[in-house]
């Protein structure tokens, strides 16, 4: 886990940026897209919105691929579901604490892409 780089900046939505960071994960990619489109100022919110979108796409692709594998895909899907749920809850709590936790690989890419918005 990484320490916060700096305190979350103020959100242009008028809601506390920590709350918006949590909300980015709450509705999977939908709220991520919503807050990425609405947010003009907060890099904290943009980062969590982008990470939420990329993580949603990643899990969707993995589930599609596992769906094509006869028995092992079903078994791995059963293992992946609770792990992804735990990760999602952890990311919501970390965002609520104001932490800039980056999921390996996806987090770095999310940070780069969020800087472009």
Automatic annotation (TrEMBL):
For membrane topology, the record states:
Multi-pass membrane protein
Record GO cellular component, one term: membrane
Pfam families, per database record: MamF_MmsF (PF09685)
Transmembrane spans? 20-38, 50-69, 75-96
Main localization (coarse): membrane
Alphabetized, the UniProt keywords read: Membrane, Transmembrane, Transmembrane helix
Q: Where in the cell is it found?
A: Membrane
- This chain's protein is named DUF4870 domain-containing protein
Organism, scientific name: Paenibacillus sacheonensis
Its lineage opens with: Bacteria, Bacillati, Bacillota, Bacilli, Bacillales
């Amino acid at each position: 886990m990484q320490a916060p780089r700096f305190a979350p900046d103020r959100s242009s939505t008028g809601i506390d940026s920590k709350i918006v960071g949590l909300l980015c994960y709450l509705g999977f990619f939908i709220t991520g897209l919503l807050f990425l489109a609405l947010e003009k100022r907060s890099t904290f919110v943009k980062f969590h919105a982008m990470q939420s979108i990329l993580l949603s796409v990643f899990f969707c692709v993995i589930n599609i691929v596992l769906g094509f594998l006869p028995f092992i895909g079903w078994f791995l899907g059963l293992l992946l579901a609770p792990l992804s749920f735990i990760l999602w809850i952890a990311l919501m709590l970390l965002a609520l604490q104001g932490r800039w936790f980056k999921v390996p690989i996806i987090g770095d890419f999310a940070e780069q892409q969020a800087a472009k918005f």
